[in-house]
Amino acid sequence: MRAVLDPNVLVSALLSRSGAPAQIVARWLRGEFELVLSELLLAELGRALALDPKVLLLDEPMGGCNREEKEDMARFILDVNEEWGVTVILIEHDMGVVMDISDRVAVLDMGQKIAEGTPDEVRANAAVIKAYLGDPKGTAKEARRG
Question: In the chain, at which end, N or C, are there fewer CB atoms within 10 A of the end residue's CB?
Fold first, then answer.
């Protein structure tokens, strides 16, 4: 049986690593005030990790985050995978983040998988280029759907 970790310990560790001062972490753990979005996302990640999962499914974990917050969250996702050995399945629309932190990428267009492979393979895939960057004639697919 796998040990269940104390969620407060994990959340505290994640928030502390995010640069939140110890007094803020302590106040949040006592329920004294709310967190900003990036800290809340880290707290939720900590809660999920408290169950010692083998796989985490993260749906838009960068949603609403600014550039710095996205960089912090990306680092934490990599740490979860590298340091704790947790496989992370990431659903994310920020392609820069996806390509930077993923080992494998699957791309959907209108609900259909059109490509799968390494970030470099997907980046060069003709179907992905056509679906998301436009066809060779310069007509964007989004405009054709409209």
Answer: N
Which region among 9-18, 36-45, 54-63, 120-129 has the lowest average model confidence (pLDDT)? 9-18
CB 14 within 8 A of CB 76: yes
The confidence score (pLDDT) of residue 59 equals 92
Q: Are strands 105-109 and 87-91 parallel, antiparallel or unpaired?
A: unpaired
What residues does 106 pair with on adjacent strands? Answer: 116
Asked if 104 and 116 touch (Cβ cutoff 8 Å), the reply is yes
Rounded distance, CA 114 to CA 109, Å?
A: 6
* DSSP E strands, 92-139: 105-109, 112-117
AA letter at 52: D
In sequence order, what are the residues at sequence separation of 6 or more whose Cβ sits closer than 8 angstroms to the Cβ of residue 140?
133, 134
Reported pTM:
0.69
